[in-house]
Amino acid sequence: MIAHFDVDAFYANVAIRDNPALRGKPVAVAGSSRRAVVLTASYEARPYGVRSAMPLYKARAACPQLVVVPPEMQKYRAVSREIFAILRGTDRPVEGLSLDEAFVDLGDVAFDQACSAANDVRRQLFAATGLTVSAGVASGKMTAKIASDSCKPDGLLAVAPGDEGHFLAPLPVGRLWGIGPKMQRRLEVFGVTTIGDVATLEPVRARELFGLWWHEACDLARGIDPRPVEQERETKSISTEETFEFDESDERRLIALLRVQARELAATLQEEGMAAQTVGVKIKRADFSVVARQTHLAEPTRDERRIFRAAVHCLRRAALEGAPVRLLGTRVASLTLGDPLQTTLF
After folding, report:
1. Most buried residue among 53, 181, 203, 312 by CB atoms closer than 10 A?
2. Does the domain formed by 2-9+74-163 have CATH 3.30.70.270?
3. Catalytic residue selected from 44, 95, 101, 248
4. pLDDT tens per residue, range 275-303
């Protein structure tokens, strides 16, 4: 049995926890610039149509009483560490999907035991963090995730072995993993509108619609999902980025932002006890084209000044020549654990 745990409206949930005056109000977490987008919306904001990734100006128009809270990424990362410490405490494989979301392999246990174990974890998470968590329990990862999405907020939905196909059948075909909006529209043209429709396709028809992926698609639609929970992978990189309120072409202002980003990344590396040997920048021009440059350092570092100098070097290698920039980000990679000086000496 597998459980999928997902903190409800994570960023907004943290904001409401830390400021009880926000409880019961429509809340969105977003930056303050003209181009800001909603990162998370509380459940009170969602009936107005406020959703993640919506431009903030549209969210304000849809919900004039919307309370906008600035994001606090350092705080979210700290809370995430608390969450994952509890999940790892189950002594079962944990597969993290994001700061607030993970699969946990509950083992070869009876259905009732799996439900009880998932509820215990939810209670522990709430006691430790003050955040509500929804969970889905099933024999496969996809069904468990769909179940947790279906019982938000603060719910537990368990699908018994053998009932997966019945649970999935009436759901829109877009809920099936691997089906994006474009594919969903194409399938609907051919009368395939639900997951149940995929489950009952004849092999020849399924092959026409899904190509080489047809067998896996039909299995998933029937609730057959043998993929194991993959133990957490090492963090590959850490990044931060900023979208300018107005397109920026002044190199001095770009460099000033790189300094701020280097400071943030250095602090994160220090918190995580890590060092980085690769530094890169991501640049999105006004025409939405993206340029990326990176450099490899002689030895790992978590020093703000070295990260900053490397980022400036990458920015100048991009040869923007005054081209207006919409977004600028810095990334560190080739991460190692431990003190960078000791690593170098070793």
Report:
1. 312
2. yes
3. 101
4. 999 999 999 888 778 899 999 999 999 99
